[in-house]
Description:
With 427 residues, this protein is of the alpha/beta class. Helices cover 28% and strands 19% of the residues. Strands 1-2-3-5-4-6-7-8-10-9 form a ten-stranded mixed sheet. Strand 9 and strand 10 form a beta hairpin. Alpha-D-glucopyranuronic acid binds next to helix 7.
Amino acid sequence: MKKLYSPKLIVAAMFAVFAAFPLCAQKFKVNYDESKIPAYQLPNILKKADGQGEISTSLEWLDSSRPRILSVLENEFYGRKLPRPAKTEFEVVDEADVLNGAAVRKQVKITVSDIAGSHSFTMLMYAPKSASKGNPVPAFIALNFKGNHATSDDKEILITKAWMRGVKGNKAREEDRGAAKKRWPFEEIVKRGYAIATIYYGEIYPDKEKLDGTPESVYRIFDSNAVEMPSIAAWSWGLSRGIDAFETMPEIDSNKIFVVGHSRLGKTSLLTGAYDKRVAICASNDSGCMGAAISRRAYGETVDIITTQFPFWFSKNLNKYKNAENSMPIDQHQLLAMLAPRPVYVASATEDKWADPKGELMALVEAAKIYKLFGAKELPTMDNFVPEKPFHGDVGYHLRVGKHDLTVYDWMNYCDFADKHFGQSKK
Ligand code: GCU
């Protein structure tokens, strides 16, 4: 009898299914149906700590609610905010005019030292050539997934020696130079008058799924009796060291630092905004579960899934909330509000259901109540859940058409939003 399906066809079909849904989505029951979202009670962001009534001033938020939320973030969700290292050194290992003379490229080796040793990572940076002591520019900073050398074709970009996910031997390769350049429109950003810096996240904490990344991470400089050493807190700490580097550079206006992060690094950028008040604006790009999305919706990725797949990203205490989101002491709208009154920007993508785009906007709309206490007037509503009609008010939001990704569209929106808040004119 003639075979109906060839083995090749079956393999191709399987590949299509795997590509369309993240691997873990197949092991867990994932809900994508709004009508099946469990009944839940969202913590009232305005509720006073003692449960008696609501706060009505920004001061009450800063003095009472914010510290309480910070303590939950540290003790229950992401792990403690790491201290500044005893010593941080910055060595400019490369400096050159690039992009036809429009920009200066710098590679800065950042060495952090504390009681148990030293650790280094390299920040790649592009700044407009015109930036100087008398004319400092605002700067973006974002971690990258594939190494600095993957962000551009530029042959001078150093290749990391750190462990790398998804490549043979877990070693960065020359052939991947420029492989992620679509996510890094350096030239366009510099043309808009901004500097942009990036660090390979694996140099801060190797994102090993089955193995332990802590011995090769920044945690090794601290006392090894530290109770917990989760990775998102470490990545976030690495971004803060990048901000330390900016503070030494006369060409950077360190009051105008805009942190961007995609996906797990979007979760990281939000935490950085919460932990480091030097962050002036913070964008979470498709950050999803334990990023911008409301956990209680349990739509797409859930606390159970994320803590099973990536336990080392978080504090062990997060495990308490597996399939028990409704008992979480806070939800992600309260993480977003930690930025207030500094502008926070949430970006989602229409096809990125895993990250629950609607739940991301819902969190922002709820967080807006805190911005209102600070006098903000331009705030989003659920009516902004419309593809490619960006909302740039006191906080920012857009829903890009397409997949889970960081694109030029996303970046140009961040530049527009930065123009509005940093008072730059559109170039
Ligand atoms: C996985 C994970 C997400 C994460 C994403 C990423 O899909 O489940 O939580 O945001 O990886 O970082 O790319």
